Description:
With 360 residues, this protein is an alpha/beta fold. It has one domain: 3-Layer(aba) Sandwich (Kinesin), CATH 3.40.850.10. Helix content is 33%, strand content 22%. It contains 12 helices and 14 strands. Helix 3 crosses helix 5 and helix 5 runs antiparallel to helix 6. The two termini are 32 Å apart. The site of adenosine-5'-diphosphate has 13 residues, from helix 4. It comes from Hibiscus sabdariffa (roselle). This is Kinesin motor domain-containing protein.
Amino acid sequence: LSRDFDDDNDPGRVRVAVRLRPRNAEDLSEADFADCVELHPELKRLKLRKNNWNSESYRFDEVFTETASQKRVYEVVAKPVVESVLSGYNGTVMAYGQTGTGKTFTLGKLGKDDASERGIMVRAVEDIVANISLASDTVEVSYLQLYMESIQDLLAPEKTNIPINEDPKTGEVSLPGAVTVKVRDLDHFLQLLQIGEANRHAANTKLNTESSRSHAILMVYIRRSVPEIVEDDINSQNMKAKGNFPLVRKSKLLIVDLAGSERLDKSGSEGILLEEAKFINLSLTSLGKCINALAENSPHVPTRDSKLTRLLRDSFGGSARTSLIITIGPSSRHHSETTSTIMFGQRAMKIVNMVKLKEE
Ligand code: ADP
C-alpha cells in the first residue's frame, strides 16, 4: 500500500491524501441532499460538483472513500513518515479540513473500546515503540494546543504562553518550557493522550471556545544510539572514559490536528470581530501562505509570521518528510468550503523537498 503512495522519483515531496467522511445524521436529514464530490479512488482523482459536475478532476496521492479503514489510512498516509522518522529524519503528519469532517477522528481517535478505530497518533507511537529498543533508545512526547498564538501544554495545562526556541546554528526548533514525558509502553501513551484530550476539552470550555479553533500538536521525540558504532567499538567503556560518547541520532515526528479551515464569519461565531477572527486564524493563514510559497518555489517562505509555522520550521520542508490529509464531507451544502479545502491540498501537492540524513 505505502509503496504506491511513495511511487515516484521525489521522495521529499509532500504527500497529500483526501478522505471523505461518511454521511452523518445531518447529511441524511437533508431532503435535498446532493453529493459534493465524486471519487475515483482507482485513478486517485476526484471531481467537485456545484450545479453540474465540474469537468475538471483533481489528482492526489491517494483518495479514500467513506469506507476506508483507520488501518489503511495509517498505512498509506503516516507509516512512510514514521519509517523515515525512525531512520533519523524529522517528519510531519497534518490534517486539514472543515470542522466536522474527521480530522480528529483520523488523527486523535483513541479507540478505547475498539482498537480498529485507533487513529494515526496511537498507531504511530505503537509502530515506533515496536521498532526501537526501549533499553537503549528513548521515545518522549509533548502534547500542545495552539490557540490565539499562545501555546498551552496539554499535559500540564497551567503552562501557557510557552515560548518557541530556535537554535541559531542548527535551526532546531524546541519547546524547553513544555513537559516531555518518556513513554514506557503503548498503554502509558494512551493514558497521556487521554489526559491531553481531557485538558484540551477543559481549556476550551474555560475559554468558551471550541476545539475547532485551536491546533492540537503531538510531538514525538526519538533518540536512538547508532548501533554500528557501539558494536564496532569493543572498548566503548574507554571511549566513555575519554568523553567520547557513541553517536546519538535524534529525530521527531509532529502530528498536527489543525483548526477548522472554515472561515470564522461563516461558522456561527457571533460576536467575534473581524480582527479577532483574523488573529484566531493567523497560524492557519500563515500555513497557507507558506504552502503557496513552497509550491511556487519562492525564495522567501514566510515561516516567521506565526507560531504554527515557526514550530514546523524544522519538520516541514527541508530534510523532513510530510504527509497531509485533507478531510471533506459529502454534502454539496458545504461546496465552497470543500472546494477551498481541495485547492489547498492541490497546492500542497506541488511542494518538493530535499532529503538528507542528519546526525548529531
Ligand atoms: P473534525 O476534527 O474535523 O472537526 P471529527 O473528527 O470530530 O471532525 O469528526 C466529526 C464526527 O464525524 C465525529 O463524530 C466522528 O466520529 C465522525 N467521523 C469522522 N470521520 C469519520 C469516519 N471516517 N468514519 C466514521 N465516523 C467519522
